Amino acid sequence: MKRISLASIMSILVISSFSCNSQNKTVAEKQAGDIQKMVKANSPGYMSTSNEYYMKAKINGKEWVADEIMASDNAGRMIGKKNGELIGFPFELRYTKTGAKTNFKDDAVDIFMNDDVKIWGGHIGEMVFTAVGDNYAEGKFYLTGTSSDSNKQLAITEGVFRIPLTNK
To answer: Which of 57, 62, 152, 158 is the least crowded, having the fewest Cβ atoms under 10 Å away?
Structure first.
């Protein structure tokens, strides 16, 4: 009888241990999700894209549509983000006028992709504001990203954006 009781107790302890680990993992995953939500809620300027505000392009011929965008005069960047990927353009509110162009030779674009290169420099290309209203700006862009580690290039074409202007 003692062996059965000891075996039963061991089984209960093992099952309880697995159960606790599963609960702890779920709690940890929930806490991680809560932390991500808090960071996102407290990141100034980022907003979900919509039909009204967006950033879209083709990257090496493949459609890319940002999930979130931000245009911050303080940060000096206009950013589109999608699943850890990011395209960050130079941005200053005072230059946001219809027809205003930015050549990326002097003001580079930051490009972070989920690929083998990861970080690209965008020094070849241009952005132009095609329309500016009281609370929005829209435009188009194209650029070529280059890797400092290799001779690879990243072609970003047919880029369009529409961003909110909150401080104009």
So the answer is: 62
**Residues 6+ positions from 112 with CB-CB distance below 8 Å:** 84, 85, 86, 118, 119, 120
Single-letter amino acid, residue 106: D
Antiparallel, parallel or unpaired: β 85-90 and 62-65: unpaired
With CA atoms as reference, report the closest residue to 107 among 124, 86, 132: 124
Q: Is the pLDDT of residue 117 over 70?
A: yes
User: What is the model's pLDDT at position 46?
Assistant: 86
Nearest CA among 133, 138, 141 for reference residue 168? 133
Q: How far is CA 163 from CA 48, 69, 126, 156, in A?
A: 11, 8, 17, 19
CA dist 153 and 142 (Å) reads 13
pLDDT digits (tens, 9 = 90+) for 155-166: 999 999 999 986
Chain centroid to Cα 130, Å, comes to 24
Q: Determine the Cα–Cα distance for residues 20 and 23; give it in Å rounded to an integer.
A: 5
Instruction: Report the C-alpha gap between 65 and 46 in whole angstroms.
Output: 15
pLDDT band at residue 25 under the 50/70/90 scheme? low
One-letter amino acid of 115: D
